[in-house]
Amino acid sequence: MGIARRNSDLGSLKSGWGQALEAVVRHPVDLFTLLPLGELAIAGARLGDLARLEPYLREGRSLLNRLGDPPLWSVPLHWSGLHAAILTDEPAVAEDRVAALLAAAGHSRYAAVVAAAAESWVEVLRGAVDPVRVEAAARGLHDTGLWWDGARLAGQAAIRTADRRAMTTLLECARALQGRPAGVDGGHRPTAGEGTAQVTDAIAGPAQPGLSDREYEVAELVLAGLTYREIGDRLFISAKTVEHHVARMRNRLNCANRAELLALLRTVVADRASNTAGQPWPRRSAR
């Protein structure tokens, strides 16, 4: 389920969800189930079915509370809870998870890294992108083994900033953390259709940060493996129009080739909620 989520493979997530829930039901909640429960919470949020997992998450949180909320076990669950809250568009819940992570930041380097990244992530969702801070947080995640999360944070920040230079810097950071340096093709040979897209890139104008709602729709279907014709049939547009959308996305995200575009789209599309993603979250209310 974790691999499917990170690859934006919604089909595999859906097909595996029933088996995952069955496994949760069969196994009692203990400390060793908290990591898979956290991963499944994000998957459930992605599928819009988190409620079915909530009783087990409550049981896990209750267990931690009885043990005094030990950071070694609670920090990963709070980190997963943050991303589930992002997917379900619950800013208040996300703030609670950030607060819990900040409270545990002194426990270990891992706790400090994810606390800083959580705080930066929520600020990005509010539209406040500090590229230096974001890159430091993203690289911190990478260095502690959370390389996919680091790349995703940088990519999410890149599409939310209006600063062209910051966008370029953050996209380069996302590429580096994915293990795909700029300019490395990875052996991909462009098809005839992609050749046309390269020509379209040249006339599309200067790249702009962010993707339109239609581009997000096209991106999700591209990541699902559909052809341009199949995407066009699904969205009631021509295959040529789909090709132009893909070319424009390449230009907007400053990607050198299709392989690089697909890698970045996995980063920026994976956690986009269906209705409100891309809109700035409200500022934290005064308490």
Topology:
Blueprint: H1 2-6, H2 10-26, H3 34-47, H4 54-66, H5 71-87, H6 91-103, H7 109-125, H8 131-143, H9 147-158, H10 164-178, H11 192-203, H12 213-223, H13 228-235, H14 239-252, H15 258-269
Helix pairs in contact: 2-3, 3-4, 3-5, 5-6, 5-7, 6-7, 7-8, 7-9, 8-9, 8-10, 9-10, 9-15, 10-15, 11-14, 12-14, 12-15, 13-14
Short synopsis of the structure:
This is Helix-turn-helix transcriptional regulator. It holds the Pfam family GerE. The protein has helices spanning 2-6, 10-26, 34-47, 54-66, 71-87, 91-103, 109-125, 131-143, 147-158, 164-178, 192-203, 213-223, 228-235, 239-252, 258-269.
What does the average pLDDT come to?
Answer: 82
Q: Low-confidence spans: pLDDT under 50, at least 5 residues?
A: 180-209, 273-278
Largest sheet entry? none
- Overall shape: globular
**Annotation field: number of helices:** 15
Class from secondary-structure proportions: mainly alpha
Distance between the termini: 38 Å
The fraction of residues assigned to DSSP E strands is under 5%
The beta-strand count equals 0
* Helix/strand order: HHHHHHHHHHHHHHH
Helix content: 55-70%
Using only CA atoms, what is the Rg?
20 Å
Protein name: Helix-turn-helix transcriptional regulator
Domain HTH luxR-type: 204-269
Keywords: DNA-binding, Transcription, Transcription regulation
Organism: Micromonospora parastrephiae
